[in-house]
Amino acid sequence: MSDQLSVEINDFVAVMEIHGAPNNYFNKSLVSEIAERGFELDNDPNCRAIVLCSEGKHFCAGANFGDDSMEGDRTQTSSELYRAAVRIFEIKTPMIAAVQGSAVGGGLGLACATDFRVASPASRFVANFSLLGFHQGFGLSVSLPEIIGKQKSMDMLYSGRRVGGEEAFAIGLADRLVEDGKQREEAIAWAKQIASAAPLAITSIRETLRDGLAERIRVVLERELDEQSWLWKTKDSQEGVAANLARRTAVFTGE
């Protein structure tokens, strides 16, 4: 347990809460801890389902580009983060994400690593990588099409636009749509329903349906990192990040 993540188990459901309000930016340490806690819960007979949620305004606003830790060897930092990300996909216990506010960039990747997502009309899902001038990461090249299909994934990734909760529900990115503020409550109720089923059967069913997913994520993460590594060196990427920090529209030149 740490200041950035807490876990509480009741009625065979573990509520794993991120503590980084208001934006709950992710980093290698947080992603690693989510994976570690998930593996511990896999071996806890008192846990049969996990709800991943966050305190504050947003589920996860992605990477904090204003953080000094983003400077330096970004490729090495991302490589370590992505190795931790793969491990989240290796967690064996069913996971439900309660998405309040925004799930942006890698935050969207984190939400897509879970089995299900509960949203409200006010929730927003954003794959804004193209507007930052670089390639998507966190395995989204596999996980997003797995959930909503290739065409809708291309729309989100090419445009970088915000997808609201109602549209997310319509395209299958959100599995349940509830009144804003009720996402966690609904996710816990759903997790309890899953936890009431035969646990060995749930594990078996999940392994069949997700067969090979973690390995496909592992492979595509290498491709994603390769693409990110050269794109980060471009003027467009520098402009995209600068514009994001300044809250202005980027002007890209193709350089």
TrEMBL record:
<dbReference type="InterPro" id="IPR029045">
    <property type="entry name" value="ClpP/crotonase-like_dom_sf"/>
</dbReference>
<dbReference type="Pfam" id="PF00378">
    <property type="entry name" value="ECH_1"/>
</dbReference>
<dbReference type="GO" id="GO:0003824">
    <property type="term" value="F:catalytic activity"/>
</dbReference>
<protein>
    <submittedName>
        <fullName>Enoyl-CoA hydratase/carnithine racemase</fullName>
    </submittedName>
</protein>
<dbReference type="InterPro" id="IPR001753">
    <property type="entry name" value="Enoyl-CoA_hydra/iso"/>
</dbReference>
<dbReference type="GO" id="GO:0006635">
    <property type="term" value="P:fatty acid beta-oxidation"/>
</dbReference>
